Amino acid sequence: MSTASTETATEDLDHGLEPGQDNVRWLGLDVHNPVFFVSAVVIVAFVIISLIFRDQAGDALGGLRVWLTSTFDWLFIIAGNLFVLFCLFLVVSPLGKVRIGGADAVADYSYAGWFAMLFAAGMGIGLMFFGVLEPMYHFNNPPLGLTPPVGEDGTVNAEAAGPAVTAAMAATVFHWGLHPWAIYAVVGLSLALVAYNKNMPLSIRSAFYPIFGERVRGWVGHVIDTMAVFATLFGLATSLGFGAEQAMAGLNFLYDIPNTDTAKVVLIFLITAAALVSVLAGLDAGVKRLSEFNMVLAILLLAFVIVLGPTLAIVSGFFSNAASYVMQLPALSNPFGREDEAFVHGWTTFYWAWWISWSPFVGMFIARVSRGRTVREFIVCVLIVPTLVSILWMTAFGGTAIHEFLNQGYQGVQETVVAYVPELSLFRMLEVLPLAGLTSLVGIVLVIVFFVTSSDSGSLVIDTITAGGKVDAPVAQRVFWCIFEGLVAIVLLLGGGLAALQAASVATGFPFAILLVLMMWATWKALRAEPR
């Protein structure tokens, strides 16, 4: 490496930032001022006001979501496209040789443990909730201006069915493939580089040091970290709300447990309590073991559906759906002149906002467990491999539901789409397969454990941000955030159900989308300063 490059790298390390250096230590707490106090006060106020004015809060959130998705859909779609292109460029670029943690760094976790944590934190609840629902929904309402194959009388147009299946699976994979994982990869890589290569605090503001320099210690950094807390908390609350809806629907479907608001609140309370136990156990004993358990359970359920479902259709569908996804990716990624506005606003824009609101949480969690990987290895494992797994999952679960409808005349999943009872879709699909009671119970357990790992990991990440980048802050602070994740999920469910959950994600994801574009630029600058 040249002398000039060495000087650049040395200057980057001389940043004068230390974890928790501006913290306030009071009553056993160790928190960053003003990030912790502003975030805590605003979120507590939101919970109280939303509980008092439930109807008004639900209406306000719903209106805000419609305005944001219809006005700024182009911003979300363009930003998502940029993230994918940037990540793919790094895979083939010489910058891919840079190792997180330095040239001699060794990976902290095995591939199996690493990937289990990536996947469980990344989108476990979402795959369980949307894996059956979304392909069937897009089959009924295909994107890109295609003719719906199912008439109002329930009859199927055979000529339209084939193109609708292809478009439905491509659209579903589009929402769960390269784009969401590219968002996570950008945040995770940026944070990993500044934490392990630049020796900076593991906080969102640190990622912007290559752009803003010492200003990240001041109000610029405070605003960035506070926005990250809001995005993370509401993104997590959205997922926890989805999980609670699905788990409660499953319990009602299997055991006739009343599916009431009170039951959902009790369920969230119990699962939050389990997440608190995991928080107290720590990262390795808690999140890692739960993630590996959930990964094994998810693989068993996936294998069950593949073996006892339409096996040949699933195997061939994996390859055909991957090909359809690649071929229709340009059309689905187009931000302008679309005829399928309902699809763009109701699905794509919501998803991109949801992924972006999750990105501080997932990105920081990925960064914490990815030391020792090269940039190329990191991108391939965080971007390509999960995309392939998502294609297989959606093909197995969604493809089975469509196969049951078209080839067996089974209306169960179709009814959940028409009536839009999305939380029941998984259980209605499993109803036709053998051992339906057992597999449905496994599905409920999966949702609950994904719930626990997400809440545990999320509270760890939010606490790190609000503790000025300290990863060993007092456990009481993580307990505080874990409890309030559950409370926000309860408030959103009571104040408007799924619509309020989606609105919260869009509202917090919008401002953070702009920050992620800047973060991509900062990552580029940080990588260019690294020895290769």
Architecture blueprint of SSEs:
Layout: H1 3-13, E1 23-26, E2 29-32, H2 35-52, H3 54-71, H4 73-92, H5 111-140, H6 158-176, H7 178-197, H8 209-212, H9 219-255, H10 261-281, H11 283-308, H12 311-332, H13 341-368, H14 375-408, H15 412-418, H16 425-430, H17 436-466, H18 475-494, H19 497-528
Antiparallel strand pairs: 1-2
Characteristic key phrases:
two-stranded antiparallel sheet; Amino acid/polyamine transporter I
What does this 3D model show about the protein?
The chain has 532 residues and is mainly α. The chain has a single domain (3-35, 54-91, 105-328, 355-528), classed as Amino acid/polyamine transporter I (Up-down Bundle), CATH 1.20.1740. Helix content is 76%, strand content 2%. It has 19 helices and 2 strands. A two-stranded antiparallel sheet has the order 1-2. The longest helix is centred in the middle third of the chain and has 37 residues, at 219-255. The radius of gyration is 22 Å and the shape is globular. The chain starts with a helix and ends with a helix. Residues 1-14 have low confidence and may be disordered.
